[in-house]
TrEMBL record:
Pathway: Cofactor biosynthesis; adenosylcobalamin biosynthesis; precorrin-2 from uroporphyrinogen III: step 1/1; Porphyrin-containing compound metabolism; siroheme biosynthesis; precorrin-2 from uroporphyrinogen III: step 1/1. This is uroporphyrinogen-III C-methyltransferase. Keywords: Cobalamin biosynthesis, Lyase, Methyltransferase, Multifunctional enzyme, Oxidoreductase, Porphyrin biosynthesis, S-adenosyl-L-methionine, Transferase. It comes from Vibrio gelatinilyticus. GO terms for molecular function: lyase activity; oxidoreductase activity; uroporphyrin-III C-methyltransferase activity. It comes from the Bacteria. The keyword Transport does not apply. NCBIfam families: cobA_cysG_Cterm, PRK06136.1. It is an enzyme of class 2 (transferase). The lineage of its organism: Bacteria, Pseudomonadati, Pseudomonadota, Gammaproteobacteria, Vibrionales. Residues 15-224 form the Tetrapyrrole methylase domain.
Amino acid sequence: MSLNNRDKRVSHLGKVLLTGAGPGDPELLTLKALKAIQTSDIIVYDNLVSDEIKALFPSQTLTINVGKSKGNHSSTQTEINEILIYHALNGSSICRIKGGDPFIFGRGGEEMIELTNCGIEVEIIPGITSASGCTSYSNIPLTHRGVSQGCTFITAHAEKQLSVNWQALAQLNQTIVVYMGLSKTDEITQHLVDAGLSKETPVALIEKGCCPEQRTIRGTLSKLTSLKQKYDVRSPALIVIGEVVNIHTQLEEHAELDSQFAFLYQQDFGKRPVTPSAVQETI
C-alpha cells in the first residue's frame, strides 16, 4: 500500500460507540444511546440487549448478533474484536451495544484497548448497570441509612474458582450484588457463611430485571439454591444479598395504613380532619 493510499484509508476510519443499553427497559436508554442506535451504520449487539430495545434498531441498519451466554458463545471475544476492527477500518460507524454498562462486567475495557491499538476512535456511552436498575424495579435500595452504607458488585463468571475476598465481603456490612452467579449459588453461600455472614441474611433473586417478565424472589442466604431450584430461575438474573432486601416490608406496612386511611375517608370521618394520626388512633 502506498503512503498516499494509507493516509486516505486512515482519514476514512470509522468510529465505534461502546454503548450501554441499560438493564432492559427501553425507557431507561439514555438519549445518547438512542441516538447511537438511530444513526450508526452497523449495530453489533449481544444476548443481554432486550427484545424491546432491539425493536428500536432501524430496519435499514446492518445488525450483527455476537451474543454470548453461558455454554453457548456464538462469537468469541477475539472474533467480536475482529468484527469491530474490520468494519471500522472500512469506514463504518458502529454502535457496539451491550446490556447494562459496557464498563461493568461488560468487557468494554478490552474492546476499547483493542480498537485504540488499531488507531480506531472509540466513544463510551454509559448505561444503567443491572445492579442499579433491577434493584430499583424491585424496590430494593442498594444503600439505606442505618442499614447499608455501601454496596459491592462482583461477578461469579470465572473459569475456575471464584477469586473473591469473602472475608472482606462478609465483614463490610454492605449490600452485595452478584452478576452471573446462578450456576454458583452453593459456592457463594458456602463462602459467605464460612466468612461469618449469617445464614439468615436476606437475599433476592431478580430474573429478567427491568423487562415485562421480571420476577423478584426473596428468601435467606441458606435457602439461595433451593429458591433458585423451586422457582426455576433462569439467566439473566442477579443475586442481591443484604438487609436492604427487606426494606420492602416497610412499604407493605405503609400500604396497609394507606388502605385504612382511604376506608375511613370513604366512611365519612365526621367533622374531624382525616389525618394519619387520626387513623392510628382507630387501629
